[in-house]
Design a protein that fits this description.
Elements: E1 4-10, E2 17-24, H1 28-39, H2 46-71, E3 81-83, E4 86-91, E5 98-102, H3 105-112, E6 116-118, H4 122-126, H5 136-143, E7 150-155, E8 158-164, E9 172-178, H6 181-191, H7 200-204, H8 209-216, H9 236-244, H10 252-274, E10 280-284, H11 291-300, E11 305-308, H12 319-332, H13 340-343, E12 353-355
Parallel strand pairs: 3-6, 7-10, 10-11
Antiparallel strand pairs: 1-2, 4-5, 6-12, 7-8, 8-9
Helix pairs in contact: 2-3, 6-10, 8-10, 10-11
């Protein structure tokens, strides 16, 4: 939720070629509304949800057009836009299960003139899956190594793992739990900034073991895959409830240090408990820039080589954006984009709805 990632990708070859990428900041007032809706969805009116859907669609279209202009491309040179949308509520455990992403794809297609593929998660849910994580199929296509078993770790708001055995046995993947979501929320509340740059503030604190114990004492972390989660569960309110259970409240820096440990331990324990052995852990997402978090992961995973995806062909900032370009291509080609062993779906399905661009005169 910290910005709009846009990537211009050439998918005509054997491997994706990233031509240009950039992040656009949300208008401040709109960003505040997105956060409010995501953290208190039961207080959002249908009118506000409709307005957000329209406004997000407009912002996504602007981001796409700006990226094209910066790269010197026009709409006639673009096959399609893959738009994940902004997740506001992910509820795979509800009956019926659902996942809600906003950002009207009709507006994206109309403003840009480019065919747009969007709404990637709900078909998997309709097929009995959780609609997440969806990037493992892309991770498999890009990062599989027949000589080296790997895990691809995306640390966004929520952290997720893709496990890629060397011999192409079944690929698995799942959400491990909070990635940056609690770290960023606590930093924003107490330091009035967006994030703890390189984890420096967390590193200055002391680990509070009573708090860590309470954070780890959640049934999600013992739940076997397939599993997925979101900020509707792991949010600032959830953290504050656990802080209230402590006899003494830790300092703000100590809480940040403990949250970093919480993220690192839940990732490491998930890999060790639910995954086949791997030799490498390739990290992408915003968490790859948190030096302290990366140090803690390396310490907790001494038998694995922990590094970013950059050395293996794609900068960690753009793996997710390129993944949804790839998923859009899969949809247009009539190919499945999910892995049932990952999401829990009962079969492979084509992900995404297709919104045609403008009709071009001959």
């Amino acid at each position: 939720m910290d910005g709009i990632d846009a990537a211009l990708v050439d998918l005509s070859g054997d491997r994706p070629e990233l031509i240009r990428a950039q992040t656009s900041a949300w208008p401040e007032a709109l960003h505040a509304r997105i956060l409010k809706t995501a953290t208190t969805p039961d207080q959002t009116s249908l009118q506000e949800a409709g307005r957000l859907d329209a406004e997000l669609g407009e912002q996504f279209a602007v981001a796409a057009l700006d990226l094209m202009a910066q790269a010197g491309f026009n709409s006639h040179q673009i096959t399609a836009i893959g738009s994940h949308g902004q997740t506001l509520l992910h509820a795979p455990g509800d009956q019926p299960a659902f996942s809600l992403q906003l950002g009207d794809a009709n507006r994206i297609a109309e403003r840009t003139g480019i065919t747009t593929v969007a709404d990637f998660r709900r078909r998997d849910i309709a097929a009995g899956g959780q609609g997440a994580p969806l990037v493992p199929a892309f991770h498999q296509a890009l990062f599989h190594d027949p000589a080296t078993p790997r895990a691809i770790l995306n640390i966004g708001g929520i952290a997720n793992l893709t496990l890629l055995p060397a011999d192409r046995q079944a690929v698995t993947g799942f959400d491990t739990g909070p990635g940056n979501v609690l770290l960023d929320a606590w930093y924003c509340k107490t330091r009035h900034g967006d994030y703890d740059e390189r984890g420096a503030w967390a590193q200055s604190g002391e680990l509070n073991r009573p708090l860590l114990t309470r954070l780890l004492d959640h049934p999600y972390f013992s739940q076997p895959p397939p599993r997925s989660t979101g900020r509707e569960l792991f949010c600032l309110h959830w953290l504050e409830e656990r802080l209230q259970q402590l006899p003494h409240t830790p300092s703000d820096a100590d809480i940040q240090r403990t949250l970093a440990e919480f993220t690192a331990q839940t990732i490491a324990s998930s890999l060790q408990r639910f995954g086949p052995p791997v030799q490498q852990v390739l990290v992408c997402g915003g968490g790859a820039h948190n030096d302290f978090l990366m140090q803690r992961l390396a310490s907790l995973l001494p038998e694995q080589q922990v590094e970013t995806t950059e050395r293996y062909g794609l900068h960690p900032d753009w793996v997710e954006a390129v993944a949804f370009a790839w998923l859009a291509k899969q949809a247009l080609a009539g190919k499945a984009g999910n892995i049932p062993a990952v999401t829990g779906a009962n079969r492979p399905v084509i992900l995404g709805s297709i919104y045609p661009g403008r009709i071009r005169k001959r």
